[in-house]
Amino acid sequence: MAMQITTGTSELRDITKMERIGAHSHIRGLGLDDRLEPRENSQGLVGQAKARKAAGMILKMVQEGRIAGRAMLFAGPPSTGKTAIALAMSQSLGPDVPFTMIAASEVFSLSMSKTEALTQAFRRSIGVRIKEESEIIEGEVVEIQIDRSISGATKTGKLTIKTTDMETIYDLGTKMIEALTKEKVLAGDVIMIDKTSGKISKLGRSFARSRDYDAMGADTKFVQCPEGEIQKRKEVVHTVTLHEIDVINSRTQGFLALFAGDTGEIKPELRNQINTKVSDWREEGKAEIVPGVLFIDEVHMLDIECFSFLNRALEGDLAPLVIMASNRGMSRIRGTKFRSPHGLPMDLLDRVLIVSTKPYSDDEVQQIIGIRCQEEDVKLSPEATQVLTSMALQTTLRYALNLISCAQVLARKRKSEEVQVEDLRRGYSYFMDDKRSVQWLKEQQGNLISEEVTGGDDDVMDTDK
Ligand SMILES: Nc1ncnc2c1ncn2[C@@H]1O[C@H](COP(=O)(O)OP(=O)(O)OP(=O)(O)O)[C@@H](O)[C@H]1O
Ligand SMILES: [Mg+2]
Q: Single GO cellular component annotation (predicted)?
């Protein structure tokens, strides 16, 4: 059965995310120079030079579109920047290279099988750059004439449009008149009309008309009157992911499912048809594959079935670069009784490039604290910075970073804009870090309800030490 495969439009990708200060919002990129050498403190990242350089090299290969089906693993103790570096990679990828981030535990959803969830994540990370030729009308508006019927219900009109070489008159229907009014098109504007979708875009005002009006906004753009034919063919390029194509073609409500996130399981036959279609398009030169990146955080939470699926999926033609992160040392592989490095089976480990991240030095911690203060708009006195750095070394980097905003609230309460040592001390006494919490639990023995865990120390958190 020959099926019509549609790809939607690039407008789908215009969903903007809400901006808030999150744990990683200070990260803007990998901070590498042209030779891929990491700068000490750049684009929000500090230190961790080896891992950043390795990430940069992999990124370069992805951008050149040379590697697919590779995997890398960031392994290291908690809060050593594994997630941060992966996010930095995503920011350096470029606008139409897809990047998907999942936490391994997302795979265990009730509405979908594990392998379906992983397949969707894989297909979300493969872009298809589609070239389409569309007919457009481009020219300078000479005159718009609108006739209303007596009742006012229907409108008809005429649009006179010209280039330097010719002039044509088009009849307008109600829809086009509305579109022109909405875009506030006037005589003297240079416009482009997409013939298939009827979309009108204003390119600017014609230079020839620049003297006609002297009250013009500062943002008025002047352009030359176009040359040649009014009707032209133009190539438009848009990138969609394989998953978007799957969803658009799998359901009656089409791409609305993408917004609702309610995509359900997609039939393998449909995926096969789409794969065949996409490879046809590739052969015809209509489409290009853009391999992207899939980041699986906390990868030790996957189980043995997922791992064996990954082994196989990485070998497919249409596989993205898979980046994984884990903070486990020797730990149990979920779904088995075996222990293995990072909680990953040996056959998968064999296929991945492993990059380790290391704990930070005093100086690096201080710089990270500095960056976070800037990001959160908090002023820290020099002594407070020293104290917070030593707190970070005694507790954890995350704890210290969390304390910044708490201390700011305390400082504001005593009507000071600058955070002093005393604010940090008070914050430190209000909130416990993990070590003090464990200590406290020991002291409280018997007072809290606890549950006996049987089966040994299989799944304990190991931190690579
Ligand atoms: N090199 C760095 N430069 C700047 N900020 C960093 C750096 N490394 C870590 N951070 C920041 O420190 C915090 C903890 O780092 P991150 O979440 O990346 O740790 P992780 O290695 O993923 O830890 P886990 O194993 O617990 O998931 C984050 O807010 C992160 O943005
Ligand atoms: Mg992490």
A: Swr1 complex
